[in-house]
Design a protein that fits this description.
With about 400 residues, the chain is mainly α. It is built from 12 helices and no strands.
Amino acid sequence: MSSSSHGQLWSSSFVMLAIGNLLMATGFYFLIPTLPVYVVEVLHAKTSDVGYILAAYTVSALIIRPFTGIALDTWGRKWIYLVALLVFTLTILLYPLILTFSLLLVLRFFHGFSWGVTTTAGMTVVVDVIPPQKRGRGIGYFGISFTLAMAIAPVLALLILEAWGYFPMFYIAALFSFCGLLMVLFVRYPLFQPRREKTRITWKRFIEPKGVPISIPMALFGVTYGGVVSFITLYDKELGLAQAGAFFLILAGGVFISRLFAGQIFDRYGPTSLMIGGFVVTITGLLFLGMLLNLTGFLIAAGLIGMGAGILMPTLQTMVNNVVTVYRRGAANATLITAFDLGIGLGSLGLGYLSEWIGFDGMYLVCMGIMVVAVIHYFGHVREFYIKNVRRET
């Protein structure tokens, strides 16, 4: 199997994958701001129970991603992707039927399975259709679909919720996801020819060894990012700014802007200059959050951390795909995304306890220290590892 023919990035398949992913992610992000309110107002659960709803989704996605990697590398991409996206869409339609918190917890757990498969498969498919020499650019542009969904969907969902209520909001979320499925039905999936030789089921089938060193900076960034997205609203209230919405909007803007140019720089100059820039803006943004306790520092930090996310995440994803063969892309992407999810989960949990001891400002300074560790690991090991293992024709 080869990547997109004729070296064309903006092929019809790439465009349909990006639009399909945008629509699917929009359906997903419809639930992020509305489901916690639904849990409290409709199911009459405690506010503290909201965390379990978020955790159930993350845990199931973590469990399924390694198995998804094996399946993608064994049986191909197309039908795994399409079936997972269909299940993801149908599951959204079940939310209005749930009448108890316990059942919702079970539904979220199984919904996380389809999310884990869909996102892992989608990221693997798009690498298949991107020409190798334009991989950095293509992954960066594709990631913008997640960014746009993250910026637009919450606002749209809240407007629909206020105008029509919960049930129409769920149905419209499912409609967005279904339209995404229709888009990717027409993608020209590269022919996948699995290896003929049989391989034993070992831990290396679940985790790509070459992806582990590159995934460590992603996990460390995930810890930091989890601390930002999980606690920034509470920090905003503590500071008395009432600008959490603006923070997330500027954060998404930073991701969008940096993704526009990061891929081109990668394809021309490689990852190191990008990683330096991504580390610098992220660490500076965390420093502003921890030290400059006013509206200016708060909003500047949002833009800087967003730019850091828009640089570091696609750069590391391109790197991990460049060190493996086509037969290991599924496992490589699963390894990287699992590391990020694990980082977010640990960050949301561990930093929450830490903030009770040293405050949110101190917590973000600790996050800055975590990113310094990521810098040391990257330049102490990952950079040289990548140079030695990068495949010139992947």
